[in-house]
Specification:
The chain is mostly helical. Helix content is 63%, strand content 0%. The radius of gyration is 41 Å and the shape is flat.
Length: 208
């Protein structure tokens, strides 16, 4: 009796280990294991790499079609360049408009009302007045033109002083001479706002 009892007690760890293995096997069936490894689909097929590539344009059938394609391409490039120039994109600007210093000068001029925009308009009125032959009209027209010219000179001096102060504050070592920036500011100040290129980014009185 005692030997039988000891044999059962000795076999009990093995039986417990078998039961644990059986329980593990029951808990993780092949279906459950495969379900864990399963990844749900995206709902649509994955596109091929060739689908996202741009297909090459077929060659033109004749010279007339080739010429038409060339003209369309040039027109699109000109439109893109004009839009970039108006927006002030450095890639499309002319050499006279490139650089952060000139961009700052444009903002300084565009943020204020300039008297110089009336300079050429008044000169045109004087030219018309001289053709009328009326001495009184010519005299008054010239007086108005000289007054606008003097006011333009004073306004230009004020603009240049502001350009000098802000450029030296923000660009201690500017890559453009100050005389060039003064002349650039003057030319932009006497140009009508709608005709300025690049177009004005600042509104009147807006901070720079």
């Amino acid at each position: 009796m005692s030997t039988l009892f000891r044999r059962k007690s000795a076999d009990s760890p093995t039986e417990s280990a078998e039961e644990s293995v059986t329980s593990v096997t029951v808990e993780e069936s092949p279906e459950e294991a495969s379900s864990k490894a399963y990844t749900p689909g995206k709902g649509k097929a994955t596109p091929k790499r060739t689908d996202g590539r741009r297909k090459p344009e077929p060659p033109p059938a004749n010279k007339r079609e080739a010429y038409k394609r060339m003209k369309d391409k040039q027109r699109a490039e000109r439109s893109e360049a004009m839009a970039g120039m108006k927006a002030g994109d450095e890639r499309y600007l002319m050499p006279r408009d490139k650089g952060p210093e000139r961009k700052l000068v444009r903002d300084i001029v565009d943020s204020r009302r300039t008297i110089g925009t009336w300079f050429f308009g008044s000169a045109f009125v004087v030219l018309l007045g001289t053709g009328t032959g009326n001495p009184a009209f010519v005299m008054y027209a010239q007086l108005v033109w000289f007054a606008i010219a003097f006011a333009t000179l004073v306004d230009t001096i004020l603009i240049c002083r502001k350009v000098n102060r802000l450029v030296r504050e923000r660009f201690p070592k500017p890559g453009v001479s100050m005389r060039t920036l003064y002349f650039y500011a003057f030319m932009r100040a006497i140009t009508f706002r709608r005709l300025r290129m690049p177009q004005a980014r600042k509104k009147f009185g807006e901070a720079i």
